[in-house]
Design a protein that fits this description.
Oligomer: single chain
CATH topology of the largest domain: Collagenase (Catalytic Domain)
Number of strands: 6
Number of domains: 2
Radius of gyration: 24 Å
Structural class: alpha/beta
CATH architecture of the largest domain: 3-Layer(aba) Sandwich
Shape: elongated
CATH class of the largest domain: Alpha Beta
Bound molecules: zinc ion
Distance between the termini: 81 Å
Amino acid sequence: MEEKYKISMEELILLLLAFFFFFVMFIFLIKMNFLIYFFFFLVSATLILLFPIFLKNKLHRRFLLKCSLFPIFFILILIFVLFCFNNYEEKGQNLIPYEIEFDAYIVNNSITPGKLNMDLLKANEIWNEQNIFLRIKETFYIEEIDFLEESFLLNVDATNKSECLKYNEIISFSNKSELRLILLDSESNHRGRGCICGCDSIVVDIKKELSLDLTGWNIAHEFGHLFGQFDIKNRYNLMCDQLKVIKPSFLNKKQIYSLTRNTFISSSVKIYN
Ligand SMILES: [Zn+2]
């Protein structure tokens, strides 16, 4: 008859502690770009992997080796992420405060004004770090745009003339504003668009992603496009939308340099203390 193994309480506690340490380090590692977290992450991962070797009982070892499969899988994913999204960047800082005013257009009651303010606060948490203050001038409620038009705004890249004509035709309700944020709730796979067809509007879908509400971050990211920034693959950069779940907010020196030369920024109201 096959011998069954029951893990002892001490072993279970040790294993749970190692896993806890491993997860905490993993979260710190992807959120912050410090070498020390990478070191601790590797130490905790190695501890979990080496743990079974110190056990004398063969069945104990087999059981714990199975437990190690999960961290191994995690490490492989992490190596992939680090490899693809980790270029060294020098941190940029804008020192001159600017206030960017825009009009908000709420399409088909997609968001309440209270929730919009909360999301704008989150977007401002990121931009205030760079002395840029986003402020709603006026809010409008729009109901004349239909489901297909909503999807068009988010799904089409609008890189050619006819697409841009259609894009501008749909958002013609906002013609009285110089700068506009359009909020809607569509079935699109995309959650935001910034700086297309004239580069004076942002479209943000308020739907959750991976059951997370990232509307605030999406607004901050799309404003980044409006301020002349392109998407880049760097896990802690605001312009990296592949890893938006960790809400990256970093901007590098080059980005800040181009940002301060952007017409929206340079023509906006400078705040003097
Ligand atoms: Zn983007």
